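Thread: "does anyone have the structure for this chain?"

Original post by V.I.:
We have the sequence but no experimental structure in hand. Need at least a predicted one for the grant figures.
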Amino acid sequence: MKIDRYKPPKSSFLSVDKDIATIKELFINNERLCRLLFRTNKDPLNTQNLTQDEKIELFEKRYIRNVPKVIIDEECLNYVVINFTNFIPNATNTEFRDNAIVIEIICHYDQWQIKDGMLRPYRIAGEIDSMLNEARLSGIGVLNFIGAEQVLLTPEYGGIHLTYLAVHGEDDKIKFANPADEEKFLEEFVTNVL
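Reply from O.Q.:
Generated one for you, tokens below.
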């Protein structure tokens, strides 16, 4: 009789890499987002889509990053940084951790103003939010937008932080009989953790 002693690891931390790859894939397939990040003219949305080489450059020059360090490059003026943070135990399934995903949008101030009074960081935020809010990603269930704030990093760079709550899986997320209970949970999460 064979005794199986191996137990595969079960942890939400093990899905972070795959989830980052999924988010990056969403970003790179959004032509408007790519143009807003890569094109530095005043009308980036009214330009041609990026070539395959330009999309590769988005990653090589680290326009889209998953390490929370931005090295300022004179040629690269707009950045998106993907951060997984504030992990807490899931209330109903101890194998999973709920967490926040913070998307930092950082732009050189000379790049903020684009055509017709639009602001580049907010256009980028709009593209990202339309992809991530209520999205289902592997290993992290439904993402819920919980807030955004403007940040001023240096005298030359500033932007916006978008924050999403990732509640793990359909079966293991908290089941609320009353929608007010879910609102209370989100308020407590934002107050106590973020």
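V.I.: this helps a lot. The helical segments are 16-28, 31-38, 52-60, 109-112, 120-132, 179-192.
O.Q.: and Strands lie at 64-65, 78-89, 97-108, 136-137, 141-152, 157-167.
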